[in-house]
Structures are given as structure tokens and as C-alpha cells.
Amino acid sequence: MVHDPSDLAQSAARAVLIMADGSLPDFEAVFHPEAYNRECAAEPPACREPGPAGFYATALWLRTTYSDLRWEIHETVTSQDSAAVHTTMSGRQTGTFVVYDANGIPEQAFPATGGSFAVTQTHWFRIAEGAVIEHWANRDDLGLAQQLGWVPPTPVYLFRMWRATRAARRGPASASTTAE
User: Fold this and answer.
1) What pTM was computed for the model?
2) Contact residues for 73 (Cβ-Cβ < 8 A; gap 6+)
3) In this structure, which CATH number among 3.10.450.50, 3.60.20.10, 3.30.160.270, 3.20.20.370 belongs to the domain 5-95+118-145?
């Protein structure tokens, strides 16, 4: 089925932009109840749920780490039931970024550096029944890590990462003590 390209482009752009400041009702209006995020493997378990709740959990996870989070949309390209959105994601790391393993256990934690970043990303969306049903992305994660000072890590930052990872594995209450 061929969809109206402007509808596809608007749905895809909205799906990106609400990550910065959208509420759960915004996500419910954009994401299909069975929507799947192919990028959720290293995210917290709540982000792995299908549908709007999982995507909203991803937004909250990102917002916990990055202040002033935003996406600038450069181009949107559509074809049949899909749209690709080329963006720049920017913000400032004010919280610990935690990466999770397949079992939902914190695998690595990157404590806040206070640094700002701007990295390009391309997000791909498949649209069904007027809503996003599938998402995947190409991101410049190395550029993000370099801009925030995660790599190459200094000995002091490696120690801070070790402490933050330990705290994340103990639970949310202890993770907040490693943000210094």
C-alpha cells in the first residue's frame, strides 16, 4: 500500500521530535500499540516493551541523562510505507548514561561530564494504520562518546565509570551518589 508522502514525513518527524519533550499521550498518538524499536537492546527493560509505553520509556531514559535534549531535522525521505529522517541530536550530559545487557542488567555506566554534544543520526520508520510500527537508526555513537569525553577515557574517568557501573547494578538510589 502506498501512503501519502507528506503524512509519512510528518509522522516520522513527530516521532523524533517528541523524544525531547513529548508526554505519554503524545507517544500514544504517534506510535502503534504494537510498535517495535529495533534499537532497544542496550536500553532499560521498560524501553523494550512494544508500543507507545516502550518508546516513551526510551525518551525518559535519554532525558534523565541529557539536558537541553533536542533534534534538528535536516531531511525526510519517504517511500511506500517507510520514512527516513536525517537529524542532529544535541544536548548536555548532566546524568549518568547506563547501558544494559540482554537480561536488563546494567552493563556499563558513563557518569555525567557536563559536556555538550551534537551528533548526526538517521532514523528509519515504518508506518502502519497511520502510526509508527517500527523504528531503527544509524547513530554516531563514537562521535557522541568523543565529544562527552568518554573516549579516550582518562584514568580518573575510568574510575568514575567503575563506580557508576557498580552503583547502577545496586539500584537507582545508589546510582545518584555517583553523579559528582
Assistant:
1) 0.91
2) 13, 16, 17, 85, 86, 87
3) 3.10.450.50
